[in-house]
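Quick review question:
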């Protein structure tokens, strides 16, 4: 599959992941579009742009869902967003290098909902671990595999 565009849910995306995407955009000539509620600094490149959407719950997510097309890649840690774009025929990859698929997204949504219900009942579930060098490497490796297809 030839990727057409890479959409980035950019508000919570780690800077190091954006940097990997910026280098990939210029290396292979793929469009990288960052969508956020705030203005973002991006390198000057014909392949990289940022879009600022209005502030509000899921505004950036909704924009990505509306704009992404089958064959596009969406970078997000947001599991409901990943589920929506997968349903449209897009690929979804989280910043830690985990590929969301039709086969695993339902389980991830169920786990997310379960953890959310625990938190709302007062249980401290912690959160994701700190973003590590191995997370960065896993993302870079997965992205390279996807771009090579």
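Suggested answer, residue by residue:
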């Amino acid at each position: 599959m030839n990727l057409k565009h890479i959409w980035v849910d950019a508000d919570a995306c780690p800077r190091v992941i954006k940097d990997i995407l910026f280098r990939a955009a210029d290396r292979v000539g793929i469009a990288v579009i960052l969508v956020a509620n705030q203005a973002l600094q991006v390198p000057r490149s014909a392949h990289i742009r940022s879009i600022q959407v209005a502030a509000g719950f899921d505004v950036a997510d909704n924009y990505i869902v509306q704009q992404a097309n089958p064959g596009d890649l969406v970078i997000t840690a947001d599991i409901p967003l990943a589920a929506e774009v997968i349903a449209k025929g897009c690929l979804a990859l989280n910043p830690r290098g985990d590929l969301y698929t039709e086969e695993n997204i339902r389980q991830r949504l169920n786990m997310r909902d379960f953890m959310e219900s625990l938190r709302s009942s007062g249980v401290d579930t912690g959160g994701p671990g700190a973003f590590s060098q191995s997370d960065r490497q896993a993302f870079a490796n997965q992205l390279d595999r996807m771009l090579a297809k």
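Why it works: Residues 69 and 90 are 6 Å apart (CA to CA). The two ends are 6 Å apart (CA to CA).
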